[in-house]
């Protein structure tokens, strides 16, 4: 029997960061996203079907003019490609393996191979993950915490161009670090 896990949006975040003018970082969040995965009935050793869907229109860098610019057709083209999608193809456990029981406080490292689609372009990626632990809370809900991150080249996904300043510095970095800090809740069987 499989257990389904859904993201707790109130206790989760999806953020991104890249270099700006080579001298600093610029970051932002995608505030509307959904994620889920499945496990077997005993523990996390057999995580499958990891899926994340993020709404580009909820992109927020705390600068409305920059947000509008990033949503235009030069960058995300949010009017045509509103969703970013990640689907797993394989879970690679660390040397110590993922917990065999749900209620574990042991931190564990793992990786998720999958496919990422941004702006209609699909590429393979590897997400690096850390299991933060799981708890049983009032009401018999089991919560589990994970941090998952990857670095992608935005040019590979058609997000913007390589632009240099008059002084020759790269205006916006090509590499983007994507990090998800997530809590998941096990759905009732």
Can you describe what's shown?
The protein has 189 residues and is mainly β. The chain has one domain (2-186): Lipocalin. It has one helix at 64-71; strands at 2-7, 13-20, 24-30, 33-40, 48-55, 59-60, 83-93, 108-118, 121-136, 142-153, 172-186. The radius of gyration is 18 Å and the shape is elongated.
Question: What are the SSEs and their pairings?
Answer:
Blueprint: E1 2-7, E2 13-20, E3 24-30, E4 33-40, E5 48-55, E6 59-60, H1 64-71, E7 83-93, E8 108-118, E9 121-136, E10 142-153, E11 172-186
Antiparallel strand pairs: 1-4, 1-11, 2-3, 2-11, 3-6, 4-5, 5-7, 7-8, 8-9, 9-10, 10-11
Silhouette:
elongated
Query: What is the element string, with H for helices and E for strands?
Result: EEEEEEHEEEEE
Number of strands: 11
SSE class: mainly beta
CATH topology: Lipocalin
Q: Keyphrases for this structure?
A:
single chain; 189 residues; mainly beta; 1 helix
Please give a quick description of this structure:
This protein has 189 residues and is mainly beta.
């Amino acid at each position: 029997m499989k257990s389904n896990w859904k993201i707790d949006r109130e206790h989760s975040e999806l953020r991104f960061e890249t270099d700006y003018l080579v001298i600093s970082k610029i970051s932002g969040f995608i505030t509307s996203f959904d994620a889920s995965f499945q496990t077997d009935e005993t523990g996390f050793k057999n995580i499958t079907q990891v899926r994340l869907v993020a709404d580009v229109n909820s992109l927020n860098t705390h600068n409305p003019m920059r947000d509008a610019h990033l949503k235009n057709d030069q960058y995300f083209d949010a009017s045509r490609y509103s969703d970013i999608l990640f689907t797993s193809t394989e879970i690679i456990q660390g040397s110590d393996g993922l917990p065999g029981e749900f209620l574990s406080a042991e931190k564990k490292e793992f990786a998720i191979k999958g496919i990422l689609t941004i702006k209609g372009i699909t590429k393979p990626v590897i997400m690096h993950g850390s299991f933060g632990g799981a708890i049983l809370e009032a009401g018999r809900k089991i919560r589990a915490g994970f941090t998952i991150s990857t670095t992608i080249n935005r040019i590979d996904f058609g997000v913007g161009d390589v632009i240099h300043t008059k002084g020759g510095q790269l205006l916006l970095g090509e590499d983007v670090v994507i990090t998800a800090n997530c809590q998941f809740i096990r759905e009732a069987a």
